[in-house]
Amino acid sequence: MLNNAKVVDLTIPLGTDIIMWPGAPSPEMETVVTVAHDGYFARRVSFFEHTGTHFDAPCHFIEGKATVDQIPASTLVRPAVVIDISAEIAGDADAVLTLEHVKAFEAKNGEIPKGAAILLRTGWEDFNSDSVKYAGPEGDLHFPGFGVEAAKYLVNEREAAGLGIDTLGIDPGNKADFPVHSQVSHPKGLWHLENLQNLKALPPIGAWIVVGVLPLVGGSGSPARVIALVP
Questions:
Q1: Which CATH homologous superfamily contains domain 2-16+49-230?
Q2: What is the pTM of this model?
Q3: Is 60 a catalytic residue?
């Protein structure tokens, strides 16, 4: 299977100009040694744990839940289910994944398997080089996300391993209380992937994802290289 699998990179390249959550510091990269002077090249890199395509550990919102280094590696290689609502929401920055969307997906593609990573494609991956389109006007966040009812169904009924999305966050930008993070997914120990890209290249069901996250001791999250394998 792996010999014939198509490899799709779901990761935004991590540079100093990447779009950040408002108020979060941008990455800093400093050249420390050079080939010309030292015989090899290396930099010192500093970044906020939730930078670029990144992983949220359950402790991000729930005190006492697992940190990044405590996440079993076996849960980071998961079958991927891609729910694409980009056409239905037609660019609505306040849209959410509804339970009706999920039920329609299952009616078309079959029951979502337990233990999958549920990846939501909103179409916002096409805007990740434009901060206003991607995040909304300064001081006024707007981007689509998971609705609470749909998230509860995916977490409780379909026993999802994690949730992922092609926006700045799992919750819609206009939900300042982060209801999915704080009430649905992290309390149950689920992880999140945010700022994914290239979800359009994945089938609804059948691909696998490999989450290459840094096991930062005590970490609330970390930038991640997320790879999909498509049979």
A1: Putative cyclase (3.50.30.50)
A2: 0.96
A3: yes
